[in-house]
Design a protein that fits this description.
heterodimer, A: 113 residues, mainly beta, 5-stranded antiparallel sheet, globular, B: 115 residues, 11 strands, 53% strand
């Protein structure tokens, strides 16, 4: 069974204080690891897809990296507007559920000014 | 281009009542999904559809039914609501080949409370 575990559950940072969010996964053949951002009362918004170990992707202050067992979302010099819940999800190879994603429980990030 | 829309945004039901949640997408996507999101449990797949007229069960399908009569619409039905179905429901869609990451696009959600 595919599993995704995110840590920490909640993270409080001061503006400008860089940190990382962790996503550990077990999956029978990874076809993609996805990062989403979710603001309160809204649907998840796509950020990145990573396919293979060693891959990195960046967007503004966010950088996602991938190993064979986990992914990190690095946040450099965060601003209050980066406050949100960050979700990690994996898509496994094979199976009959087309594009099925298994989600972690999310990390709630709060950035104080 | 509205993307994925969901109606209603909020709903309160009494135990045993029925209702239908509507999801619409204007991106011509083949695949559509219904998820529920509960505190501490992440998003869980209820049902999905890979095309007009086809549906399949996800990981938590009990108590729900779905229909995909038109490509752009995906309906989620609750025949007899139970308090355990209190949740936030999200619809998502994606193209089978489009998008560099095969990412799913999500709607804004429906918050359902069953009393």
């Amino acid at each position: 069974e595919d599993q995704v575990t995110q840590s920490p559950e909640a993270l409080r940072l001061q503006e400008g204080e860089s940190s990382s969010l962790n996503c550990s996964y077990t999956v029978s053949g990874l076809r993609g690891l996805f990062w989403y951002r979710q603001d309160p009362g809204k649907g998840p918004e796509f950020l990145f897809t990573l396919y293979s170990a060693g891959e990195e992707k960046e967007k503004e202050r966010l950088k996602a990296t991938l190993t064979k067992k986990e992914s990190f979302l690095h946040i450099t010099a965060p601003k209050p507007e980066d406050s949100a819940t960050y979700l990690c999800a994996v898509r496994a190879a094979g199976g009959t559920s087309y594009g099925k994603l298994t989600f972690g429980q999310g990390t709630i990030l709060t950035v104080h000014p | 281009n509205a993307g994925v829309t969901q109606t209603p945004k909020f709903r309160v039901l009494k135990t045993g009542q029925s209702m239908t949640l509507l999801c619409a997408q204007d991106m011509n996507h083949e695949y559509m999904y219904w998820y529920r999101q509960d505190p501490g449990m992440g998003l869980r797949l209820i049902h999905y559809s890979v095309g007009e007229g086809t549906t399949a069960k996800g990981e938590v399908p009990d108590g729900y039914n779905v229909s995909r009569l038109k490509k752009q619409n995906f309906l989620l039905g609750l025949e007899s609501a139970a308090p355990s179905q209190t949740s936030v429901y999200f619809c998502a869609s994606r193209s089978p080949t489009g998008g560099p990451g095969y990412e799913q696009y999500f709607g804004p959600g429906t918050r359902l409370t069953v009393t």
